[in-house]
Design a protein that fits this description.
The chain is an alpha/beta fold. The chain folds into two domains: about 375 residues, Rossmann fold (3-Layer(aba) Sandwich); about 130 residues, GMP Synthetase, Chain A, domain 3 (2-Layer Sandwich). Helices cover about 35% and strands about 20% of the residues. The strands form three sheets. It has an eleven-stranded mixed beta sheet with strand order 6-3-7-8-9-10-11-15-14-13-12, sandwiched between helices. Helix 12 links the parallel strand 8 and strand 9. The N terminus is likely disordered. This is GH3 auxin-responsive promoter family protein. Pfam families: GH3, GH3_C, GH3_M. It comes from Formosa agariphila (strain DSM 15362 / KCTC 12365 / LMG 23005 / KMM 3901 / M-2Alg 35-1). One of its GO terms (molecular function) is acid-amino acid ligase activity.
Length: about 500
């Protein structure tokens, strides 16, 4: 009998019973007020007169009208650079203990995003909220006694000046609570290994020593790790070695494109729970099994705003025009794409995180990630978003009985006009690409009226190439750091795409 598991599950159930009902709109007012109050004496707070904003009855509106939008380059060039000159109280009190390195999906150059002690606490608190939300998934008591494999970036952080640097998953893992360390795998020693291939090799070697009940990590890299364990031990599937594996918490990207290839590595169904942890903070998590949507963490150090995702508001680099209108949680609508704007306890203010989201339940503040502002393909008016691309890949998987864990696309000009050039990652490269091209084109015409109009005018058609999925991970390994938070860019500009095609042809 799982005595400890029963106790933990009972505590989670009691906590849920005693927790008062959440009111996301009111939570957000309180969070913004707290952010302004805490930062009013910083250089940023004085520059934008937070003290005066706090005196306004409608301080949310005044806040959005007073503070401009910031992407990483703008806030770093105007404010965060001072943190590296040993200045304190710049956009948040004190000086951050950590900087999260993030190249995202766009290139080699790392962003250095401040991570304060307050943000570490906020991430930890959101994680605890997610644990307590597990009551809704009705997991068996013995699940709470199993170990958790967290495949992130290295916890061997870089010592630099008066702070440490690393990817957010490594920073978070290096700050796990003492009571959790007994559950945490692969453990401190292996987690510190910087070389991703070496770390995965050590995981494979030690896999039989662990009783893994849950997995956590970005799907693409987690799949490669699971394949390595299966290959190393000559298994049929991962449940042959971890029979008690029951849960996977996915993060970083939408899980749906990876679902079919991921499930092929399992011996039995497991519960998949989506999370939304970015370098800038823990934004949302799936709180109930009836939906794959995630609930915004509205009471824990992040204030959210939303800009309607319309081409006229988006610049070519994915940033916003200065006067793009924003709304608060009180005014959002269902099934509309929004650019997500955040202000945080790490001193990010009206920060364009680069993601687009859609609300699926306003009362619960539940969302789905629909894409990236930079990955919005609007050449010749096609207005193709990543969620439509993901839907198209799922359609192809079903129609042609194939697995497509990766893809990328570029709008490329040829002598006779523009084409959408697709590279689709699949083991089934012998499939008829002409039939796949026709099916993809027809699906997008039916799913997106703007695409259909573009196809009748300047968009001449599609060019589809089927390649092995490992080419995508090899590309990421060559251009960025392998594993961790690295994600494949879904849309490339022509210059980047030229380099990509040269790489593929090699």
């Amino acid at each position: 009998m799982a005595i400890i598991g029963n106790i933990i599950k009972s505590v989670i159930q009691i906590k849920d019973t005693l927790t008062p009902e959440s009111h996301p709109v009111e939570n957000q007012k309180d969070v913004l007020k707290s952010l302004l109050e805490t930062a009013k004496d910083t250089a940023f707070g004085k520059h934008y007169n937070f003290e005066a904003l706090l005196e306004q009855d409608d301080f949310q509106t005044q806040f959005s009208e007073t503070i401009p939008y910031f992407d990483y380059n703008k806030i770093n060039n105007e404010w965060w650079y001072r943190l590296h000159e040993d200045q304190s109280d710049v956009t948040w009190p004190g000086n951050p203990d950590y900087f999260a390195l993030s190249s995202g999906t766009t290139g080699k150059t790392s962003k250095r995003i401040p991570v304060t002690t307050d943000m570490i606490d906020a991430i930890r608190n959101a994680g605890i909220q997610q644990v307590f939300a597990l009551h809704a998934f009705d997991l068996p008591p013995d699940f709470f006694e199993k170990e958790i494999m967290m495949l992130g970036s290295s916890t061997d952080l870089i010592e630099k000046e008066n702070h440490k640097e690393g990817e957010i998953s490594g920073i978070s893992a290096s700050n796990i609570p003492f009571w959790f360390r007994g559950y945490y795998k692969p453990g401190e020693d292996i987690s510190k290994i910087d070389d991703w291939d070496e770390r995965v090799e050590r995981i494979a070697e030690n896999a039989r020593n662990w009783d893994i009940g849950a997995l956590s990590g970005i799907p693409s890299w987690l799949e490669l790790m699971l394949k390595k364990v299966i290959e190393h031990h000559n298994l049929n599937n991962i449940h042959d070695i971890w029979p008690n594996l029951q849960v996977y918490t996915s993060g970083g990207v939408a899980f749906k494109p990876y679902e079919k290839s991921f499930n092929a590595l399992m011996g039995k169904p497991i519960t998949v729970i989506d999370t939304y942890l970015a370098s800038e903070g823990f934004i949302a998590f799936q709180a109930r099994p009836e939906t794959t949507s995630m609930q915004l963490v509205t009471d824990n150090g992040i204030y959210f705003e939303f800009v309607p995702f319309k081409p006229e508001y988006i610049l070519e680099d994915g940033s916003l025009i200065p006067d793009a209108p924003s709304i608060t949680l009180a005014d959002v609508k269902l099934d509309e794409d929004y650019v997500l704007i955040i202000s945080t306890v790490s001193g990010a203010w009206r920060y364009i995180i680069g993601d687009t989201i859609m609300f699926t339940d306003i009362e619960r503040a539940e969302i789905k990630i629909t894409g990236r502002t930079k990955f919005f393909l609007n050449t010749v008016g096609s207005q193709l978003s990543v969620n439509k691309m993901n839907d198209a890949m799922l359609h192809l998987e079903e129609q042609f009985d194939m697995k497509i864990p990766e893809f990328t696309i570029c709008a490329k000009e040829f002598e006779d006009g523009f084409y959408h050039c697709w590279y689709i990652g699949t083991e089934d490269t012998a499939k008829d690409s002409s039939k796949i091209t026709e099916a993809l084109d027809n699906f997008l015409k039916d799913a997106n009226k703007n695409y259909a109009v573009a196809r009748s005018k300047a968009l001449q058609g599609l060019k589809v190439k089927l390649i092995k999925p490992e080419i995508f991970s090899d590309w990421n390994a060559k251009n960025k750091k392998k594993g961790g938070q690295v994600k494949m860019e879904r849309v490339m500009n022509e210059d980047k795409f030229k380099t990509w095609e040269e790489f593929v042809n090699q």
